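Before drawing any conclusions, I looked closely at one protein's amino acid sequence and its backbone structure tokens, quoted below without any editing.
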Amino acid sequence: MTSTAATRGAPVALLLAAGGGRRLGLGPKALLPYRGRPLIEHALTVLREGGCTELFVVLGAGADEVAAGAGLDGCTLVRNPGWASGMGSSLRLGLEALPPGAPAALVSLVDTPGVSPAAVARMLTAHQQGARLAAAAYRGRRGHPVLIGAEHWAEAARGAVGDAGARALLTARADELTLVECGDVAVADDIDTPEAWARWSG
């Protein structure tokens, strides 16, 4: 059965939220308190306000705690028991869980609070205009979110090892990649260190 979003030809959103935040020492990244609520709720709000209507979320570290402690209504949850092996395993499981009729996936990360609804909207517009492989760019430098057309999912999954995510796919198909400049409406930072978190949580 084809999903509603797929029927409309809209990409589904795939939020990778499995990280344990070991370098931060504050528990699962998804539950970091940001603007008065769990970081994962902020990420989902950004995706929805940017135009995404069908959301898949990959949980890993503290999955039960995250599912119980955050508002994830309306999302399809995918659990990654191998989350500690790196982001690649979450991307693989997430892509495998997507509905077969979906034309593309907009892959976003829970630890990029600077991504804005405007950036998400630009990525969706790029898809509407024919892009099959695209990445948000910040002053010309590739970042997140990333749009992956369904025809590239298998290749993306094969190259998703360790923390590489979709890097192998995007590198191999650089000549097909559309860079969508978002540096004027979003910030590329990801939260991997206590110093980075201090900048965003202060």
Q: What stands out?
A: Confidence is low (pLDDT under 50) at residues 1-8.
